Amino acid sequence: MEELYTNFVQISKNSEQYIFAVKALKNQSGLSRPKIAYLSSLLEHIENKNNLKSRQKKILKFTDAYDFNIMSSAKELAFLVFDRSEIACVQLYVLNEMSKNARERKNLKSTVTEGPWLLTINDFVSGDVLAFSNSKELRKKIYKQLNFVGYTKDFNNSDVIEDIRRIKNELANINGHENYVQYELQNCLAENTSIINIFLENLYKNTKEKYQLEISVLKKFGRMLSISNFSESDTSYLTVKYMSLQGKINPTEFRQYFPKEHVVLEIFKFIESLFKVSIKKCKTLYQVYTLALKKYDVYDDEHGLLGSIYIDLDERIGLKSPGAYTILIRERLPSINITPIVMIVTNFDHQETLPHYSISIFFHEIGHALHYILQSKYAVVPFEDTKEVPSQFMQHFVNNHDIIRNMSSHIVTKEKISESILEKILNTSNDFSALSLLGQISHALLYQNLYQNLNDSWKEITSHLIEKYDFEHLATHQLCNFRHIFSLDYAGIYYTYLWSEAIAIEIHNYLYNNSSTFAAKASLIRKLLFERNNLISDSQAYKRVLGKRFPDERYFLRYYGIII
User: What pTM value is reported for the model?
Assistant: First the structure.
């Protein structure tokens, strides 16, 4: 019997043989009590591991169902526009897309000038029409359709949300935690929910006043345009109209200075200078999944090839999910000299140029890509709530005057963007900042409560928060079409976006507060936040850079013009 006990450890711990051997030995007589106790603990460990895998598979199953309902309901909610006057001010490239959709999806004989136009939901088309259509009735219809994505009769995520909450809570319980938020916090810079709640409450209290002021400005402006009954569907339209009439923005004028290919190359040049790497474009297109993509290899003098980046910028309906994201295709395997490969996917419109917000998105995604590629073989696993810091850090360069001007090149004349146009964009970025921020804060508070309070349904939780915080903008069933939060990774810690951005803003202050030390600081940021090769934890890294462990929300609020 003792010989059996000695030999069973030679069996692969991943095999069914191993589990069988443990059970057989435990049921035999002749073993000492400590060895029986050890075998019992092994069985418990194996059972817990299998339960975890089972719950994770169920979560993936439900998130797939959640995504399917979103995509299917969005197709179902698309509708035709026949009256050209309703979309008279909509940008030409959007009308082109709507006409193409009518031809391809409805088999209609549509032209850009005559229509009919198919208005798709949950993509850039619906967003642009909301911002530029003069028709209040059309905007109301779009807003209504957007809020019913994932909440239609045939494609409804109500029950799926409760299934995901239940399974994630079971996953947390198996790991010895009271709820899923606590389970996620075991590997977070924020040590407990009280730290997060104080952070979010401070953001809310400071942002709410500016939000109310911004809404009052829009309501007053709406009355000047004979829009008396202000609603959420008017927010984008009035914001764009107000900024335009004030002479502050002209999106079409701005984007002419930023051709897609040129922007990508200039951002790469900036990264080369910042982090002392070289990025080389491969001559041929590479096949990834079903897509032919451009490939860029990243090198430095010390290590040679660090990794490769595939880029797919344009929207491809039916071939990829909406939104923007970065995928790790191949991990670094230093033992056999394998370098990582990442793919940056966006869904930019089919124009040859990019607006300011799209450049911001690309900066963000390149931050994720660099995080994978620059990591050393000794990299420390990042905290769950700091994974977004590298991407947020890179994203904030989009508002740097010199960087943006240097990467500009008019698509026709090749001239740099004028100071007047650039200042209009950069100096007005905070004019309605609270409108956006309060939305993020409300989502963070909503999802914190969603996974901590399991006695109430998700609808009851949403209604309670709308009443408590006066969140007018929050639709009761908005959770049914917010796919990102119901993935396996970020759900329950949605505060991480605001938290990471607060850290990133402080790091930018650190980088720029003394131009003579810029290069040395950029090198330290690469080592501590991207390479992560000093075998130190996130908390130690941020303490070395910022002098403290947790972000100070005052820098964040000052950056967005919430406080002075």
Answer: 0.81
